[in-house]
Amino acid sequence: MQSTALRFKAEGKTIGLVPTMGALHEGHLSLIRKARIDANIVVVSIFVNPIQFGPAEDLQKYPRKLVTDLDLCEKERADFVFIPTEEEMYPKGFTTTVEVKGLSDVLCGAYRPGHFKGVTTVVSKLFNIAQPDLAYFGQKDAQQTIIIKRMAADLNMKTNIVVLPIVRDTDGLAMSSRNVYLSQEERKTALVLPKSLKVAESLIRSGERRAEVIKGRMMQLIQTRPGVRLEYIAVCDSEQLQERETVQPGDLIALAAWVGKTRLIDNVIV
Amino acid sequence: MQSTALRFKAEGKTIGLVPTMGALHEGHLSLIRKARIDANIVVVSIFVNPIQFGPAEDLQKYPRKLVTDLDLCEKERADFVFIPTEEEMYPKGFTTTVEVKGLSDVLCGAYRPGHFKGVTTVVSKLFNIAQPDLAYFGQKDAQQTIIIKRMAADLNMKTNIVVLPIVRDTDGLAMSSRNVYLSQEERKTALVLPKSLKVAESLIRSGERRAEVIKGRMMQLIQTRPGVRLEYIAVCDSEQLQERETVQPGDLIALAAWVGKTRLIDNVIV
Second label for A12, Cα 20 to 30 Å away, from B19, B111, B228, B235? Predict the structure, then answer.
């Protein structure tokens, strides 16, 4: 993959990379479509990255749908699908980490220690392998996009990070490969999460600026659904991820919650 | 520098990078000469990297000789000299680190905590900025070369790491920008370090294989010079830096020692 990428670069071609863990949904496809418009060469990577999963997390049961994924990549006219094995990515003796300190320890990072270090390490590898001019990420993983932008800037990576909006199902739930874990009942329950973000937006539109009030009203709503265990709601700036007392334009409202055994995240930029 | 490098890459040119902290000596020049032979475009970087110095180390007094350095780079026909400021390399909010765990904690790393993390972070940045196909390092910094090779392999960097032999002054002392710190008397004293490596080589040539015996004989010699405070002598393999009981072909014998207020390192591959 790297030698192919370097050959295209020596011909002056632009490369767009869409890094994924597979089980592709409309969110991923929106990234591939944008890459297809922007870049000469479109690479989709599919790799369920073990080092970004905690020991008690869902690495084993994470959905794998390679045949469908390849079909979707072909339909979206990706030029290459890069599917390395764990042994290729992390051979014996592998010991290097790329870490964005601080930003990786808050929000989801506080509940998933080591997760973002795993993400930044694998993304560094994928960038070096596929040599992208542009790399595409979904806004659903808001903290991930902020961390990757910081890493790319700090390490002077040549890759421009493109973040595209959350794609939602018709019922409002943010698309996620993990949604397949939800029972029909759990899925209905989960809808309270995007609804709580709508409440926040509507409060802000009507003039509310106090983060405590906004978070309070979101929690109130979420508590009407006993099947949801809230992990966090954060109102923070969208660069340093510092909690706000007073909401500012461009701020991030993000949440994580468990619905049954499924961990869901969602967010909005206000 | 990056946009210049990317333009050359898009034309199919090869780039050779010689990363330095300036105060160039014959060791550095041997790297530039090799780059000049190997690559279409030769970039020398000069940056005294603050994050690889400990708080009690010689960042402030580290020799700076920019005018002479530029003259030498021109004589050796480098195409570009990249001289960033600290603020350009580490702007406000900088928080990303690249780290090679394990290898960075032994030998010099045990005495200079954080040093190699500073090295791998800045080298990652320089590689992304200068986009080298080849990067040149001196064998004098043996552990550094091993760590950088590991980093480049682990993170799938496109850059090939080229390591060139130690260049020694006529008296046998390994070339180092820090040698200017030595008084005439200290310099004579310091010669016991390369001599001790000669003793090790000669012992091995005559059949000795026991690391303890070899290190013992080296220490014996070094102790005849009261002006030398030995930090470590290591006999180890030259990939994992694991200490050996029995020397093997290709092993590294490395040492660090203080002569007055100057810390010197030297090594040999046997």
Answer: B19
